[in-house]
Predict the structure.
Amino acid sequence: MDAIGRSHLGQQVYDRIAKALLTGQMRPNDRLTIRGLADQLGVSSTPVRDAVKQLTQENVLEHRSPKDVRVPVMSEATYLEILEIRLSLEGLAAERAAQTATPLHIRDLRRLLDRNDRAIEKRRWADATEGNQEFHLALSTLAGMPVLQSILRGLWLQMGPLVACYYDTQPQGLNTHHYALLKAMENHDGPAARRAIEADIASAKPAMLGQIADLRKRLVAAEAA
């Protein structure tokens, strides 16, 4: 992570740590230190401590002891709960967005997809994971649902490190359902847009569960060592 300036310091620190989580710079079970993060960001410990506290309250980080802050290893139950919530809420966002989308909105979404395709082609997986999140959250913006977007952003933060592990496997067809969604939006077909985003979210389920099983197996082995 790059060093940052002094204006709006607390929010910048939070945003940088959040981005590191979303783009795979921090992985499940990684141990973080306040001092280490402060050195990377070029700031004092105070704003980092505040950001870590906030992220812990949001279930994005976890304190295993006063000096042991970790990126959580998500449980299968937590993943399935988040999956169910995302299917419902992102489906709603996609359906509403399709009903109100303008040609300008559709053009902006296509640009996001084109940029993400280039990142995938060049195997820039951090950029690809970030672009994927931007595309999904853009739907709630287009739907005019800022409260919903805030909820979804929190869920994406929790999912970020796991999604990064999933992208490590270089899965195929990452944008297939996104293009189906774009087509539905061009036709102002809300139900088809909902089905497309639901299919996109659900398509990763088997691989995600496999990642969780592998990560938790490694966690158990590390704790037993």
Observations:
- The chain has a mean pLDDT of 92.
- The first helix runs from residue 9 to 22.
- The radius of gyration is 18 Å.
